[in-house]
Amino acid sequence: MADVPRQHPRPTARLRPVGDGELRLHHRVVHGYRRAYRMAGEGPALVLIHGIGDSSATWAELIPDLARTHTVIAPDLLGHGASDKPRADYSVAAYANGLRDLLSTLGIEQATLIGHSLGGGVAMQFAYQFPERTERLILVSAGGVGREVNPVLRAVSLPGADLALAALRLPGMRIQVGLVAHLMRLLDTDLGQDAPELLTLVDALPDATSRSAFIRTLRAVVDWRGQVVTMLDRCYLTQGMPTMLMWGDRDSVVPVRHAYGAHEAMPGSRLEIFEGAGHFPFHSDPARFLSLVEEFTGTTSPADWSREHWSDLLRAGRPGTAAGRPDTARSRALERDLREASERSAT
């Protein structure tokens, strides 16, 4: 376990080239909606779940290496990428259901889940709804821990956000946004760490249908006050499930203090901090990310779920106070988040 951030050298070499065949999009129709996904490799199943406004392409450079030892499935969530974008339920619970159904059509009964940002919330919700199908959890800069989130996302959740997003498609706006992102990077701001990904997000909303799906997804998890769902109130249910948290210490979207709160709330979890990385640590340091995933999946046994163990955990319930833990600022912050969680629910 890594409670204290460790120094790691930055990689100097790129990962090996990506083969077109390994990254080709496939499609399955589930409940009448076309869902896009990438699938490669053989071995235990490893599911990669992207964040809001993103797609399976975010994992493109990692899939070939992960596929050496795993069957890798990277879906485009409904409303994202090349999947359909209907007027539908975009809650984390609905995403977990959709992921289960897609995996069932592919013959995947159990898997290790890697979720980034919103995808981390979906992975945690999947583990809560379908613990018997979840072997391990790897949560990367995950949403659903504390209320804090980048003010830009809070603003986009407000009425009229569709007009603001549409304005980004006006002639010349892409250049202006690019200049602002470049300036943030030059000034070495935390938000600047993720400037390339922010530009990709703008490009991923080319039409009204895409923008509507994005806003529906965002409003399901964020409002003007911040994040509106939580996984803290049921983190104790991960007891016995191998869980690893990865976070960039310069994450300007979901602050790194959420990583420590989640780590403290999840019994037996492991925490890895990527120094100098923003919201996309697997882009900032892909070699370390791959090494950690391979080591974690190779040295831990899949969760041995049983109905009796699950019932025992539910009856015991979530620890209600910080009794028995040191009275640190981190513990007090965790207790505050747990109190806030009483008005928020991941279901």
UniProtKB/TrEMBL annotation:
It holds the Pfam family Abhydrolase_1. InterPro entries: AB_hydrolase_1, AB_hydrolase_fold, AB_hydrolase_sf. This is Alpha/beta hydrolase. GO terms for molecular function: hydrolase activity. Residues 327-347 have a biased composition (Basic and acidic residues). The keyword Ion transport does not apply. Residues 44-286 form the AB hydrolase-1 domain. The lineage of its organism: Bacteria, Bacillati, Actinomycetota, Actinomycetes, Kitasatosporales. PANTHER family: AB HYDROLASE SUPERFAMILY PROTEIN YCLE (PTHR43798:SF31), MONOACYLGLYCEROL LIPASE (PTHR43798). The keyword Metal-binding does not apply. Residues 316-347 are annotated as: Disordered. Keywords: Hydrolase.
